[in-house]
Design a protein that fits this description.
2 domains, 33% strand, 7-stranded mixed sheet, alpha/beta, 15 strands, Rossmann fold, Vcp-like ATPase, Chain A, domain 2, 6 helices
Length: 254
């Protein structure tokens, strides 16, 4: 339909995003793809460019959009987001606190995971970051009435409480240990994401203090694609190792 995003895939497997419109076109080095050749067709339609090159058209996955969207800051990499959703047990209907919006990649994943019956409250100190995140989320998911964005430094306090989960993308997550302890329901799960091990250590010490958080565990996630051609199999050069550490903890009754 007009207004939808389309993912174009060439014969070399390269991806391109375009927003469809009647009479529109996508120009790239393989020629021109006319949007009218895609509109009204089934997903996976094969189209021919003006230079007689073949291109497939699909609905983009979230990862396709996230890796190509506009951003003002580094994003939490998809491999880490995928791990986070499982280990933090983000479930449909969950009430989730997010601190540190970035460009909105994590917000998208959280919104999709909690579904329309859940609620996401995101705290971001910078209006420009929040505006970019809102635009990115709207571009992929449309309006999300279950999402509230508060332009406020989470260190200054959290107006909401009773959260099932809390996810922090902050340089010093331990600085908000008191606020998170008050906002997270007993048994709730905390996750914080930081790039270096010193930040992990400082954060763990802060959240462990006083016995308010238990079962602390940290992980580093690697990503190694493989390529299969004819009888050859080998890892690709796009191996992605360290991007950050994910630390998880449970809120105790203390």
């Amino acid at each position: 339909m007009p207004g939808e995003l389309a993912l174009l895939v060439d014969r070399n497997g390269k991806h391109y995003l375009t927003r469809l419109e009647s009479g529109g076109a996508f120009h790239f080095h393989h020629g021109v793809v006319r949007h009218d050749d895609i509109l009204g067709k089934d997903e996976g339609v094969l189209v021919t460019t003006g230079l007689e090159r073949l291109v497939w058209a699909y609905r983009p996955r979230m990862v396709d959009y996230v890796m190509g969207m506009h951003r003002q800051s580094a994003i939490i990499y998809p491999k880490d987001v995928a791990f986070l959703l499982m280990w933090a047990d983000i479930f449909p209907g969950a009430y989730v606190l997010e601190a540190g919006l970035g460009s909105g990649s994590l917000s998208m994943a959280l919104l999709r995971a909690i579904g329309p019956q859940g609620r996401l409250v995101s705290y971001e100190a910078r209006e420009d970051m929040a505006s970019q995140a809102r635009r990115n989320v709207r571009e992929l998911l449309g309006d999300q009435p279950q999402w509230t964005v508060r332009i406020q430094d989470v260190r200054d306090g959290i107006a909401d409480s009773g959260f099932d989960r809390a996810v922090l993308d902050l340089p010093d997550p331990g600085a908000v240990a008191e606020q998170i302890a008050s906002a997270l329901a007993p048994g709730g799960i905390l996750c914080f994401y930081v790039p270096n091990v010193t930040q992990v250590q400082t954060g763990i010490e802060a959240f462990r203090a006083g016995g308010r958080f238990v079962e602390l565990e940290s992980y580093e996630v690697s990503f190694r694609p493989w390529e299969f051609r004819d009888r050859s199999a080998h890892p690709t050069r796009s191996y992605i190792g360290h991007t950050g550490f994910l630390t998880f903890a449970r809120r105790s009754l203390r």
